[in-house]
Specification:
about 70% helix; about 130 residues; elongated; mainly alpha
Length: about 130
């Protein structure tokens, strides 16, 4: 029982830290990047000035996704004894849905994203 409580504590802590980190990501974007420009050309011209903030944003967001994966696994472990089907569904949904964001977080600093149809940035030339 002590091991089960330890897993639940670490999972809860991971969920709390993930939420705090997500708020920090929003603050970093709001303070260092600011509001998007009215014209798309202005946004592109401003990108070199805010590139470092975007890199920090994406790395922290990747950390949020990792912490929430731990949280969802702990939730599965807590719920599997009472109701297995909702525990499996919630775990699958919690782990598979954020995976759409991971390729964009990993490739935001490269000249071409891993999957251009998934990410909002575009490639200038194919890999």
């Amino acid at each position: 029982m002590s091991e089960e409580n330890s897993v639940l504590r670490w999972g809860g802590l991971a969920g709390i830290l993930g939420g705090i980190l997500l708020v920090a990501v929003f603050v970093i974007v709001g303070v260092f990047v600011g509001a998007p420009a009215a014209e798309p050309a202005e946004t592109v011209m401003r990108f070199p000035d805010v590139r470092a903030a975007h890199i920090v944003e994406e790395v922290l967001y990747l950390g949020v996704l990792a912490l929430w994966a731990v949280h969802f696994l702990a939730l599965y472990r807590a719920l599997r004894a009472t109701s297995l089907a909702p525990a499996l569904f919630g775990s699958a949904l919690g782990i598979l849905v954020p995976r759409e964001s991971v390729p964009c977080s990993l490739s935001s600093t490269s000249p071409c994203p891993l999957n251009p149809t998934l990410c909002s940035s575009q490639c200038s030339e194919p890999r």
